Amino acid sequence: MPGLLSGYTAAGVTHILLSLALVVVLFRIMQGRRPA
């Protein structure tokens, strides 16, 4: 059970990091298209 729980947590953290990275990339692209 602990192994399954840790694996599920690792998958959740990976999804969160991937989502955060995707948001950052999209934000940088949007900033690049609009010169300040």
Your description of this structure?
This protein has 36 residues and is mainly alpha-helical. The chain has one domain. Helix content is 89%, strand content 0%. The chain is built from one helix and no strands. The longest helix is centred in the middle third of the chain and has 32 residues, at 2-33.
Record the SSE blueprint.
Elements: H1 2-33
Total of domains: 1
Low-confidence stretches: none
Sum up the overall morphology in one term: rod-shaped
**Biggest β-sheet: count, sense, barrel?**
none
Strand content: under 5%
Oligomer: single chain
- Strand elements, count: 0
So how many helices? 1
Structural class estimated from helices and strands: mainly alpha
Determine Rg (CA atoms, Å).
Answer: 16 Å
N-to-C SSE string, H for helix and E for strand: H
Mean of all residue-level pLDDT scores: 88
Percentage of residues assigned to helices: over 70%
> CA-to-CA gap between the ends?
52 Å
Structure described in brief:
This protein has one domain. The protein has one helix and no strands. The chain has one helix spanning about 1-35.
